Amino acid sequence: MTAQSPSSIQQQVTRWTLSVPVQSALYVSLCGLILWTVYFTTYPAVHDRVHSLRHHTALVSCH
Amino acid sequence: MSRLKRSVLISAIFLMAIVFSGWIGLSQPQPSVQLTTTPAVSQIRPFEAEATNLQSPVQVMLQAMDSAGLPVEDAQIHLQILTPPRNPWLPTDFPIVEGTTLLDMEALAPKGELQFQQMLPVRGTYRLLVNVKPIAPAAFVPFQQTLTLSVAENGVKLQNFAILAVILLTVGLVGGWVIGGKQPIQPGEVSPQRVQLLLSGAIVVAIATLLFVNINAELAQSHLAMAMSHPTEDVPPLETPAQMQSQGLEMQLSGDLSATVGQPATLNVSVMDANTKQPVSNVSLKVAATQLENNWVAFAYEGIPDSTGNLTWQQQFFDGAPHKIEVEVAPQATSTRQFQPFQVAQTLSVQGVAPPLSVRLISLTYMIGLVILGFLLGLGIQHRHKQGAFMRQLN
């Protein structure tokens, strides 16, 4: 069994990171977290800022 | 006639008699309760938080009618208003209020009429459970009726969600288009790999930061009261006291001084003669509950106290903000006791409650679903592009 060289491991990691599934997961995760922060977080500073937006959007629970 | 035919004939006559008597029973008028609203039911909309124009509560009139279709007299009406049932799959902006009791009151109705104003917090079908019984025992047979009041959603909310859906689909589409259009790196090709890795790293950091902030917010909220857009502040003191003696009358407003969204608060006003301490019932009471931050009326009622001089009601305050309960006593036109109207008031702090995590996650899932849908569309378009280009290359 031959040990992989550090450069081939790096290439594999790079290929994996830049693959479509991983990039898609990162993109959707970021979108999801931004949506949570804007519409659903209870963090007071954010909640107070977007209070009107939340109450004027269907399917968004505020309180 | 054979025995079988005779028994079939008798059974048929018997069944027809039952159906006929049932039909006669149904066709006879029954005592009922009529519901009238201002505005009309089709125009009623739920409470709009942060509205630009001050919203008025719905005026509700319940009229008890006897079997002859005439208004019932000297009745005692017990009313319960139940909010629409809970539906986590289509949540409203006040999910804690869903499936709870909004109002519970019992009032004297000399003309069989109960009129009040109520702000309705959410869309859906409200149930009004009305029990009518006579003040004088056995004056008439008590009856009850369940009425429904369907409130449509505010059109602006639906419109805004439709706009959001288009934005999310577009965001997904653009993401799928860009990510799906990535070409495999060719040998010797100069590719911005370092830039792509840097951007991916930045996204991971952004995700981690957002996760950290939001998880901390949820943990903090589970321990503390929700700050909401109503910062924790002392309930402002009122100039009007909760108990007052004036012109031979003593009026006192008592009950809960604090409430929680989703749970009713009990309030009571009592009127008595200041000298004899005997209850007074031949007066008019005007009750108003006002949210103090934006000055909208949550509930209003005009009626008379019972024979013990009391008016008691249970009311749910659905907005986590200070409220003022004000009661004005005024003389009845036909009463010998005449005086200048005066008021008592008290403030009540209301604790807001954050919506359940599960309900919020369901709504988030809908939104992410739209992003993924757009994303798959974008990937699909890119895939077709590449197939088309490949076929052209072969040709």
How many helices of chain B? The count is: 4
Please give the domain count of chain B: 3
The structural class of chain A is mainly alpha
Helix-strand makeup class of chain B:
alpha+beta
Main sheet record of chain A: none
- Quaternary status of these chains? heterodimer
Low-confidence stretches of chain B: 225-233
Helix and strand string of chain B, N-terminal first? HEEEEEEEHHEEEEEEEEEH
Give the SSE order of chain A as H and E letters.
HHHH
For the biggest sheet of chain B, the summary is: 8 strands, mixed
**Strand sequence of the main sheet of chain B, in spatial order?**
1-2-5-13-12-15-16-10
- What is the residue-averaged pLDDT of chain A? 87
What would you say about this model in short?
Chain A has 63 residues and is mainly alpha-helical. Chain A contains four helices and no strands.
What tags apply to this protein structure?
heterodimer, A: about 60 residues, mainly alpha, about 70% helix, about 0% strand, rod-shaped, B: about 400 residues, alpha+beta, Immunoglobulin-like, 3 domains, eight-stranded mixed beta sheet, eight-stranded antiparallel beta sheet, 4 helices, about 30% strand
Write the layout of secondary structure elements.
The complex is a heterodimer of chains A (63) and B (395).
Chain A: H1 6-17, H2 20-39, H3 44-49, H4 51-55
Chain B: H1 3-27, E1 32-38, E2 58-65, E3 75-82, E4 101-109, E5 113-118, E6 124-134, E7 143-151, H2 155-180, H3 193-223, E8 243-246, E9 249-255, E10 258-260, E11 264-273, E12 283-291, E13 296-303, E14 310-316, E15 323-331, E16 342-351, H4 357-394
Parallel strand pairs in B: 10-16
Antiparallel strand pairs in B: 1-2, 2-5, 3-4, 3-6, 4-14, 5-13, 6-7, 8-9, 9-11, 11-14, 12-13, 12-15, 15-16
Helix pairs in contact in B: 2-4
